[in-house]
Design brief:
The structure is a homodimer of 318-residue chains. Chain A is of the alpha/beta class and 318 residues long. Helices cover 46% and strands 15% of the residues of chain A. Chain A has a 7-stranded parallel sheet with strand order 2-11-10-6-3-4-5, with helices on both faces. Chain A has a 3-stranded antiparallel sheet with strand order 7-8-9. Chain A is elongated. Strand 1 of chain A pairs antiparallel with strand 1 of chain B, so a sheet runs across the interface. The structure holds a DNA duplex (30 and 30 nucleotides). Chains A, B: This is Sugar-binding transcriptional regulator.
Chain lengths: 318, 318
DNA sequence: GGTGACCGCGCTCACATGAGCAAAGTATTA
DNA sequence: TAATACTTTGCTCATGTGAGCGCGGTCACC
């Protein structure tokens, strides 16, 4: 611990090599190095603790159960799924891994939800891409926030809800309105529209919700889709926002910032997510660390699917 | 083996997680998963064999003994030192690692050489930088090939021999002539010079040699130092050369190419290296793979210090 | 359908290993 | 210097673990 003797550390290394690479017994090593066999055993434990010997599990489906347990306890979550973030992987690959785990989690969820509220975005697009065919039987998927396709990409907001429903042998109900409108009155008008009101009513009482918080960055999908300008992002940041959930921007306490903007946003309220039996948030990458903390700390989600670095961040936060 | 069942692989993963991360005994795992304890033991062995569980030793001084053994056997070497090539490290860091190992090897060499012939170059410069003070007592270091400083860098050819001697509490004999001269006659004249002849005689009977083969690239030190032009490099490549040893360019069989150039090169002959008790070659990086193969296959060195990727390459070569 | 080859399984048994403990050694303080 | 707290060491013992064996099931080939 305190010694830091290079000579001793080198001995540790020799012992570790003999044991793990040379397949010698601790007794044999002790004989060769003039040590008792118990000393060798302790040195091996020390080498593992010091990280000289690293035992890691390498598998795409591997989950970090220790972190999951810590997260559920720390934030009173129903469940957590933490996948290892490979050092060599970029953000896109990481998102894909996390999305895959989320799809798997959803498929394994028991009792299977009869109605599932879903948001949209890059992460959910990836989740939809990994959902196993036949993951459910006759699920009813409901789009919980607006997202009329102003997006340039072919995978529109409505598409991911459809795909998830399709693979679950079920039906989909879309919310064919913009995510954010320009006038409060427009929102009110749309909401009073019968077809929209019906969807929202449905969306507010789903058995499960699946969404991905958005980071407050200039390349967010809300910016790319044209609902926000770069200036809006700066203004939100100045107002203390750390990101959005189903299009609603929140601060570190999970409270809505900029009420005026929020009143122009179409979709379920944060309260609806808080009330959900399974409210599953999916988030990957450093950009989402802060918004992740906000949603788990304020109970907007009760299930979190993420990568181990985000999990570490959440556990470090006081 | 042949099954490739994803379900079973997932079970393997679960078992591995429980054992290595959950610190459960094989018995407990068997209980939980309705397996016998022996099945669990076999699954763990399988998981390790399949690479799902990876046990690796992480330490700057770590050596790959299995590869060292394979190399010494395959090429009839006296000794081999193979250090792991960290995936994240660049070529410079890798060279430093290998150089450090070489310095250590030299210091541990028993019986300690009374006379040591050294070459020069970027790699040997790194070796000199890592040689421990007091690594020998009264060693006599002799420069084995020409290298009168035409180099732009401050670390001249003679400098590394001096440093190695200095740290070994010994003396140094330099070879103050160019590496390659322009006329055969010049070489003959220089060699007949008493002072040069004496050094060469000394250099030809060293107890140990330490050198690093050079790759045939346009940024080789021989080019940088002005002994060769870029065109010369291309000509040598066309003549079948894979690199140089103490300034002498060789082909894949370890034979000198371009006799005319070789006759203008000052220093010990390849035969002198082949005759040495310890002829230690130090080489790191992909660029030196081919020249490495040439020198170990043709017996120019009998000790090789290198990285694990080079070792892999040498073992793959039929 | 019969027969032999093969494979995976559970088990015995001998060995390897870690937890826990008391003695020896070492640092710390009065 | 002596007393004390703390660490390290070697050991006992219970437990964990892997090699090897025989059984039963499966498959291919006759």
């Amino acid at each position: 611990m305190t010694a830091e003797e290079p000579e001793y550390e080198h001995q540790l290394l020799r012992v570790a090599e003999m044991y793990y690479e040379g397949d010698l017994t601790q007794e044999q090593i002790g004989r060769a190095l003039h040590l008792t066999r118990w000393k060798v055993g302790r040195m091996l434990a020390e080498a593992r603790a010091a990280g000289i010997v690293r035992i890691q599990i390498v598998h795409p489906r591997h989950r970090r159960h220790a972190l999951e347990r810590a997260l559920t306890q720390r934030y009173g979550l129903r469940d957590a799924v933490v996948v290892p973030a490979d050092d060599t992987a970029d953000d896109v690959e990481l998102r894909d891994r996390v999305a895959s785990a989320a799809a798997q989690y959803l498929a394994d969820l028991r009792p299977a939800p009869r109605t599932l509220g879903v948001s949209w975005g890059r992460t959910l697009d990836a989740v939809a891409g990994h959902i196993p065919s036949g993951w459910a039987r006759g699920v009813h998927v409901v789009q919980v926030n607006g997202g009329l396709s102003r997006s340039r990409r072919p995978t529109s907001a409505s598409d991911m809800a459809s795909r998830i429903a399709h693979h679950g042998g079920g039906t989909v109900t879309l919310l064919p309105v913009p995510a954010i409108v320009e006038q409060d009155a427009t929102r009110a008008a749309l909401e009073s529209e019968r077809s929209v009101a019906d969807v929202l009513k449905l969306a507010r009482h789903c058995g499960a919700y699946l969404f991905s918080p958005g980071a407050l960055t200039h390349d967010s999908v809300l910016v790319e889709s044209g609902y926000l300008t770069s200036a809006d992002v700066d203004a939100l940041a100045a107002a203390g926002s750390v990101g959005d959930v189903v299009g609603r921007f929140i601060d570190t306490d999970g409270q809505v910032v900029r009420e005026d903007l929020d009143r122009r946003t179409l979709g379920v309220a944060l309260e609806d997510l808080r009330a959900g039996t399974s409210s599953i948030a999916v988030a990957a990458g450093a950009a989402k660390h802060r918004v992740c903390h906000a949603i788990v700390a304020s109970g907007i989600c009760n299930v979190l699917v993420t990568d181990h670095r985000t999990a570490d961040h959440l556990l470090e936060a006081a």
